[in-house]
């Protein structure tokens, strides 16, 4: 690292970058090697696993994802439109902040919130029992999965659509009011074109998140009738111990995600118009009475959907005996394990991201493909590969750290890269002229510019890892338990009060980390 | 109906954040008045008040002697051209112009003919089906002018519409505005930073400073030796006596 060329070009020795890419390749490649070796070892078993069950599970995976996408995205358009049409009302910014919370919440915590409302012993159980005239069985199966997915994805989609609507230049709003356009025409001529341009990206993201959704389906699916490929992989490995079936299911999941991604890349073509810069964020429109009522209804309904489960988490969690809970040995052990694993995985994620960024644009771009590979797939591959040579439960910590780090890496890249590229554009020539390179450059030039983005990446990756119930579900055991794993155990053994308390603590923990990451990222001074 | 209406701001006050404006000015019907002044002096605010995008804190905005209070932007007898973003990027030239006739794009035969004629009048015949991104910056502003033509409103507000164009193009556009004004005699309020623009097509000048009307009068006076001192300071190097 003695010489550097101008911005964007690769440095002379991108060694750390290559090492990072090699590590990612090893973890992902090792998983696939394990899957292929197992398939080759037991071809009959693999062939036998290509049965009606697998097709049914694959079908359900697609169906629930499609239904979740439609139920999230269509109402999100109405909500985003309502929010953008009323730029100033009491509590608006609070609502927008609230809409960001589900993203930060671990899936298992959200599942717990939904169960405290609509579960067998949930708050609405009595009312539903009275209404249906039987005993309310709890919201399991398709309806539970859909509700949870909408809880996560509707606010996400609404925020993305609202962002898209903000790109409409203020002049166009002024123009539309001068020309006297009605709401329907404004929607057709101004709002819809922007929304439609954003639609493939938003719907694709939501669909992808739902196809690879593991925790929600595991906790709310409630049985083989509502099982997705990822959950079926987990069951094949943990319960049936049928590696051949797991291999087939995993390959099916990979094929499915690849098809979906290829499809999305095709339709995701962006309709880019001329670059318009908004002058102000003011709107010059007055909504009519009936429009106001409709907009208010949309916002209120979305608010209820988002705030309901969150309020339930808090209320049910506070009912639990938190003081006893936090002194329990199992809680303390799980917390310590979680903190160590999350810290390690966040550090690894940030280091990977930094190495890749420093190595140049192309390398960093090529590493983002890992987003397409679900963690369960990687976990399953290594599980199958190592089960004959080692105690799979003993390698749990390494697995969790490695896989979570790789999963968080694209997000870390997103935090670090803009700052790095901006700094490189400013400093590369100067450093070259002054002969500042290697360690000196790292210490004097790069570190001050990247300190904050790195901290953002670290906290964000830690939050992701802390709340994840993916790899740990496969590899967890009595010796290695993280907080989400402990929570899942408590939910399974019907210790609902303890589970609610744990959910509150875990949720609060992750939320605080995300808030910290957000603050670190925002107050960046340039 | 095409001839201009008078525009009057009667002791209009307006607050925007920290800045307070007090605008008291009259604009001669059927004349081009250049609205000039330093950045932040209230030029765009003045146009926004006339167009109805902002409401006065107190005072009255009168057009043709009629109080505009409570009148939505679309109900006022004005058209406005902005510096940018005058067109909808996904609509063709003809549709963008047609919006001036009907905000829902329901156009009958006569409307269509008017649209075609207006597009031809601004020199864009044959480009009706183009999208804005296939046009140059000057051509885009011509489309906006064509829309003004089909709207047939007696007052035209120009908010630095040619500031982003090069000198030759700007001269062309000024020529076009001058011709249209000669044909239709609408009242034009023209915000510009360029004294030579004002000198070329404006009969009157209103000079703003710090949210107030500093001075106003005939363009001939402003660009002659009796120009108000503050205006001369503002114009600075480009000396009026050439």
CATH architecture descriptor of the largest domain in chain B: 3-Layer(aba) Sandwich
Q: Kindly report how far apart the N and C termini of chain B lie.
A: 39 Å
Tell me, briefly, the overall form of chain B. Answer: globular
- Mean of residue pLDDT of chain B? 88
What portion of the residues of chain A fall into strands of 2 or more residues?
A: under 5%
CATH topology of the largest domain in chain A: MetI-like fold
Write the layout of secondary structure elements.
The complex is a heterodimer of chains A (526) and B (242).
Chain A: H1 15-41, H2 43-49, H3 52-85, H4 92-104, H5 107-118, H6 125-132, H7 142-166, H8 170-179, H9 183-211, H10 215-220, H11 229-238, H12 243-267, H13 289-319, H14 322-327, H15 329-358, H16 361-367, H17 375-386, H18 396-434, H19 438-467, H20 471-475, H21 483-492, H22 496-522
Chain B: E1 7-16, E2 19-27, E3 32-36, H1 43-51, E4 58-63, E5 66-67, E6 78-81, H2 93-98, H3 109-121, H4 137-151, E7 155-159, H5 167-184, E8 187-191, H6 195-201, E9 204-209, E10 212-218, H7 219-222, H8 229-235
Give your account of this protein's structure.
The complex is a heterodimer of chains A (526) and B (242). Chain A folds into two domains: 50-319, Orthogonal Bundle (MetI-like fold); 320-376 and 393-526, Orthogonal Bundle (MetI-like fold), CATH 1.10.3720. Chain A has 22 helices and no strands. Chain A has helices at residues 15-41, 43-49, 52-85, 92-104, 107-118, 125-132, 142-166, 170-179, 183-211, 215-220, 229-238, 243-267, 289-319, 322-327, 329-358, 361-367, 375-386, 396-434, 438-467, 471-475, 483-492, 496-522. The two termini of chain A are 26 Å apart. In chain B, the strands form two sheets. Chain B has a six-stranded mixed beta sheet, sandwiched between helices. Chain B has a four-stranded antiparallel beta sheet with strand order 2-1-4-5. Helix content of chain B is 33%, strand content 24%. In chain B, α3 (109-121) packs across α4 (137-151). The longest helix of chain B has 18 residues, at 167-184. Chain B has helices at 43-51, 93-98, 109-121, 137-151, 167-184, 195-201, 219-222, 229-235; strands at residues 7-16, 19-27, 32-36, 58-63, 66-67, 78-81, 155-159, 187-191, 204-209, 212-218. The interface between A and B is medium-sized, with 25 and 26 residues.
